[in-house]
Fold each of these.
Amino acid sequence: MHTVKLSLGERSYDIEIGANLDEAGARLQGLCLGRKMAVVTNPTVKGLYGGRLIESLKAGGFLVMSIEIPDGEQYKNLDWVNSIYTALLINSFDRKSALVALGGGVIGDLTGFAAATFMRGVPFVQVPTTLLAMVDSSVGGKTGVNHPMGKNMIGAFYQPKKVLMDLSVLRGLPREELLSGMAEVIKYGVIRDAAFFDYLEKNREKILSLDPDALEYVVRRSCEIKAEVVSKDEREGGLRAVLNFGHTVGHAIETAENYRMRHGYAVAVGMVYASRLAHKTGLCGAAVPERVEHLVRSYNLPSDLSALGRKPAVAALMDTMQLDKKAEGGKVKFVLPKRIGEVVITKEWDEGALRDILKS
Ligand code: NAD
Ligand code: GLY
């Protein structure tokens, strides 16, 4: 097992990579959690891993109940947060009672937001079960839900007390979900670590066949990069925005298409488009978008919108981007690569070029 520390003063916590689900109860000792605990999950994940996690928590002395949210991004909304509050109130949860998010990014974001707001904040633990949740959403404390007008429009920065990752659960993950997580992994190489990008280029087969060492390295390096960025800029005053590489266009696609495309797939297209935009804006040479597109495609991720069948209107995408909370002072901020391993956050980008890229 490997532990990555996210350093945030008294809100620091451990990300335990390679922890065994059956040891969760023991691993949560000493975190000042109350005895009452609610495992929030969905029917798919509950059926696969709920029993093991709940047994282990009970063996650790916790009084455990479970709360089920239907499976899907469309349930990441305030109605289902409210259903969590109701279950907690009916079961007399208090301010020390803890929530445990068992699932992918949807469950993690929703549960984290419920934990941030129930009784002005109760402790919570992330037990991510998708690659995407392991390398991104369970780490760093962004919690929240969608609004019909935009993705993640309602939320809070709220850090978990611990993140427990049992990598063996990735064996049962549908292929598309594994690939979706790989998009966020590729993101870390582009924004921060050229050597990691090279590693991803050279070790595709090992990674996709879930070779244990390769998988551990990919998750560890991703978490290290995210932890380093978040520890320097928890609330996205500046640097943290680099983690949004590929997300400006990606979120617009997800919203405009009503989440028909998986998050990671939309981010993959967004990374390719942002790299092309960087080239057209004169920030980088043609080799950067070419390498990004090549890597994205080599992991069977989409590099354009043809996967959707019909293309969303360019005007709709541009409008949705404008609404994205990352638009400040009227102009959308883009994260654009200067080279592999280094990006800039800028409002200076060529709108005509972006329209052309979206049309192409
Ligand atoms: P998801 O949570 O919808 O999970 C994908 C699917 O995999 C679901 O059907 C789920 O039931 C299933 N599943 C989960 N674990 C499984 C397992 N081990 N075996 C088999 N099936 C399993 O999707 P996701 O890609 O994990 O997360 C996407 C969400 O994460 C989006 O809402 C996105 O906005 C959010 N996100 C948040 C952050 C953040 O910083 N908070 C970062 C990135 C993404
Ligand atoms: N996923 C972007 C962030 O955590 O900041």
Amino acid sequence: MTNDFENPQIVGQNRLAPRAWFASGTTKSLNGAWRFHYSPTVAEAPQGFHQQGFDSRQWDTLEVPSCWQMHGYGRPHYTNILYPFPVDPPRVPTENPTGSYLREFTLPEGWQDGRVRLRFDGVDSFFRVWLNGQEVGLSKGSRIPAEFDVSDIVRQGQNTLAVQVHQWSDGTYLEDQDMWWLSGIFRDVSLIATPKVHIEDVFVDTSLDSKYQDAYLTIDARIHGVQTEGEYEVRAELLDPTGNAVHGGAAVVLGESVNFGGSVERPRKWSAEDPALYTLRLRLAKGDSVVDQVEFKVGFRVVEIRNGVFRINGQAVKLKGVNRHEHHPDLGRTIPYKTMVEDVLLMKRHNVNAVRTSHYPPHPRFLDMCDQYGLYVIDECDLETHGFGYGPDNITNIPEWEVACLDRMQRMVERDKNHPCVVMWSLGNEAGCGQNHKTMADWTRQRDPSRPIHYEGDSETRNTDVLSQMYTSIPDLIKHGARENWLEGEEEMVQARLRKPFVLCEYAHAMGNGPGSLKEYWEAIYGSDRLMGAFVWEWIDHGIRQRTASGEEFFAYGGDFGEHPHDSNFVIDGLIFPNRVPSPGLVEYKKVIEPVVVERTEDGLRVTNRYDFIDLGHLSATWSLRRDGELVQSGVLAIPHVAPHETADLPLPCSLPKGEGEWVLDVDFVLATETLWAKSGHGIAWAQFVLRESQLAASMAAGPAVQVEDSATALRLSGPTFDLEFDRVRGRIRSWRANGIDLLKDGPQFHFWRAPIDNDGGARAGIQTSWRQEGLDHLQERVGSVEVQSLDSGAVQITVTSRIAPPATRKGLDCVLVYTVDGSGGLTLDATVASPAEWETTLPRVGLRMTLPAAFEKVSWYGRGPGESYIDSKEAGRIGRWQATVDELHTPYVFPQENGNRTDVRWVAVTGKSGFGLRAEGDPTLNFSAHHYTTEDLDRAAHTYDLPHREEVTLILDHRHHGLGSNSCGPAPLPQHQLKVEPFRWTWRLVPTV
Ligand code: GAL
Ligand code: MG
């Protein structure tokens, strides 16, 4: 027996031809509370519920739009590649959750006379609809609209609408994106009334002349209901961004379609930087009376590939992108309007200029916002068949599935074709590369020759206009930029591919802490015109907000709902946390892709304008000079005129400082006036230069001679203000009191382990595995010798040699820590680490860890801040004086892991409220992190609620720390950011603060 939801040849029934999404006619929203019944199978779902008089009083109420799993029906299920059920296309399981929906509505007055259509913007994955007991039709394709003509069924007064949705269908096989499996009517439902004869669809094209100055606007409209040729006329009116009419035109409707156009002189062109939108008003007139009117936005822009370079309005642009899934921590894939705005604002405020709508067309309003706020979009077809692999037996290569593949593409292109923001169509994601892709590409090219076609799966670029890859390493990317990569294969194909631009449709896997090396990626991209940009994977962590039994909030990931199979926290890999708080990765991205770059020249500064279309007139700039972090002088920086892609040289805004200390010049570029997306004063770009380095070397303070009491197992050192007990057996401090207060609970001790980050490769592979295999998470210490020596200065020196090594192997690290205690109560630490053995692996970190008393909650430091930073992700860290509480220093990654490091720190003080505490000084710098969690706590925890919030503070000072990379899916840290085992030596000072 076949049925409609297990038959890929059926993509819909009675669905109207797809068309552009614009405001036409009058709309009545059918969102809101619907009656709802949930059944575990299709067969057990209520029969005949669409019939008049069906008693649904026992049913529940469910909000539409929504994903039913987010409201207690069934459960969310996360898989990356795997289908969650046996692969048996087009069959789906008997256990096929089915939602039955009912609602009544009253037809507004006067609607009877026209045409009424029923529209669903997104239903996952199959639905059938009835109105007043009569079957209207069915549709598949979860994230593309379906419209039905219900003019003949709808009636005056009360109407009853019934919809049945199946979670699984043959369509599911085409929707294997890496995300939660969620179902139901998850986007808007509406009724649209138009006159009987009306403008049904419009396709505008804006082409520019060869100088990109004057435009030609072509309007191609489909008119529904015309009976007599020549009876109607379409009149166009074009309003410029300020609302003035700039163009008019008209054409007589002869058949079903009308095509006309006209030139527009020197229109303001649309770009992400200056998203100038015109309004096109089309009126359908019969004689003097206007029978229908539609209105939508038009942007004048052309996308081209010329000489292998991707260009917008003639200019080689760089797409500074992110991959955006639709996710909301409480609502799943149902995204409130204000959340879409939030995403757009966050992107714009972080210098992002492009979005790939991975891996399906977004809610249509999102694209309106991209037009309006200015974001370039790669609009991606709702097609992924990852679970079939990439071979020829993928269903995208099977003729029975051609209709379904093509249908999805057509419905996306038709819906979104008028958006200036859409600069490329994408055939989908990870769906092999089959014959059906060719069909999709051929149709698209013929329907819309104005946009290039993207598809990462087409490595030979037979159907695509750009070469696209994901997770390419930086050295490989550089080679692609130089057209020196991928030269194997059929000569003609290779040559054709080399003529195409290169895009990284995914890179910088932002899972947990990271990604590293954004800077190096962008140096590579700016190094070649062929490289048109890159899209971080991905925008948001798809965590689902939950509470523990005791009420603690946390974000759930794969497996937390008892699903099988699942891919755990691989769904938590975004630049923003599930609650849309930016993660350090986004802050770093903003800095790396900033549109103004300032460099130091021999006698001044060089400003580069990295905008593609605008000068720097919308910015204002200031400079400030600080000594050791304290402001000395500041002023306004006059910005010269710098055309896009040009540079200008400026003198230094201040004279070169001569005094003691470290002198740092900051230059800041901010918005001079408010924009649609940020207030005036919003930071766009900045730069910092050390004009003069500190000349002072850390020195020991003089003081009275230190008193020593020595025994076989302990050593007591004291001075007027302090008292330090040393454990001779374990070779470390037992207690240290200054001015009567305990400074330490434990340590310092050598520390080499970090709680692995997702980008250490996870449990599956990667460096984390070899670190654990080497036993670096279980190091043991054997104290070799403890020697005490009184120095001439009155200070006392304790030299501890030890061997720190993993169990069960002969490998180990020879460590020496020399403590020099001076009469003022300060402590100088000289550390050396040597490795007699060859280590195949790197080290997570090389540093010292100590535990500080509970009250030490205040942290201030001079170094990079305010956010966390690591060796390959520290561009956004500004050298300055910063303050935070220990709690604030913790970055709450959904899956707990190493976090909160601060790099290039000159000194850090951790104190109680009174300011009394401990200060560590680098020579010249150190890394620090301070937490209420130990490394082991972070390592053990799988959820935030697993972390025991300890009263005491773990302070870790690192001499070196392994990079982040993006090896949860992409490459490991660059060689220069890996912490290789080599001899280490450093000197720091620890002093009590008053
Ligand atoms: C890519 C895929 C994405 C996502 C990512 C890993 O291969 O296109 O959808 O799965 O890997 O997070
Ligand atoms: Mg996939």
Amino acid sequence: MDYYRRSIEIILQNQHPGGAYVASPHYPNYQFCWLRDGSFIAHAMDRVGEHQSAEAFFRWVDRTITRYAYKVDELEKQMKSGPLAATKSILHTRYTLEGEEESSDSAWGNFQIDGYGTWLWALAEHVKQTGNDRLLSELADSVNVTVRYLEAAWRLPNYDCWEEHPGYLHPYSLAAVYGGLMAVEQLGATGKFAACRLPAGSYAAEVKDFITRMAIYRGKIVKHVWPAAAGRTARPVIQSGVDSSLLGLAVPYQVFSRNDPVILATVAAIEKALHRSGGGVYRYKGDVYYGGGEWLLLTAWLGWYYAQNSEEAGASELLAWIEGCADEAGNFPEQVSEHPLAPKEFQPWVNRWGPVATPLLWSHAMYLILHESLKESGRKK
Ligand code: BGC
């Protein structure tokens, strides 16, 4: 099977006419479009030359943010009068495919800042690749709203990218904020984004300074950080350990360079604790979601990091492992459960929500990104 073509096909088939990408078409709780998943999917579409699909997604985000931009005005006002008690004015992490907030599901937290950084990063990559400066001017207002939102919200505790631990700040999420703000700053510096009058670069520098001071323990990045509170400064949550999403601090958000000692030590910890030898990559040690299986998108993410470091053998091995996880129709699941971290926790999730989400568009997207990164790294030689 040509998994490359099949992945593109699955993504295009599951893009709503308005531009949104459904997280997973058949899984009951994933009938929404997440900014996090969607931005990586759009980036994958850009990498494979499907720029129209990516552009349609960015326009969908633009319309959605414009619809809810009034909340950012409210949030800024609330922030002036002290820390936020209720987070009513936050922008949601996922929307219906029509770009409306979903109100039915209150069990999952909707306050997650990372996707807003990721969309800025992905949009900037789109503009760099396509030279579509016109799109950037058309989307200028929602880009500016996002920059304001990130500056207002990044210090507030929010759910992590796995939709857990709302009491903390998360270096992955902060990295996405940093990456998005820096992307806007760099577009400004090239003269491509004159419409941004906000000091995105100095906001980004503050975020990086915070990560550097508060998120590193014994030379490695930790998974969570305690937010500052009355009489207490922020500090790393030492026991939170390592999480594979921390790869994002290097690739793609470049908070630190790929060879910075703190990245090398963090990646080594991920490899040791979370990469099953010859297999895939787990999210984190205590994962119980569907028994805590190996996630395809994280396996591709580690491969992406390897490909950028010219470690092609390692990257190709991970690519092949992902291909081995496809079903007979070429669909990639969110995770595979043959070697779960918490086997007893698998069946209760199946009873609750049905089988693991398949296809997961984000899995297909990360596979495509890895595929393209490997090609690029081969071309550089
Ligand atoms: C994951 C999120 C993801 C969502 C939709 C959740 O289970 O934790 O990271 O955005 O699924 O794919």
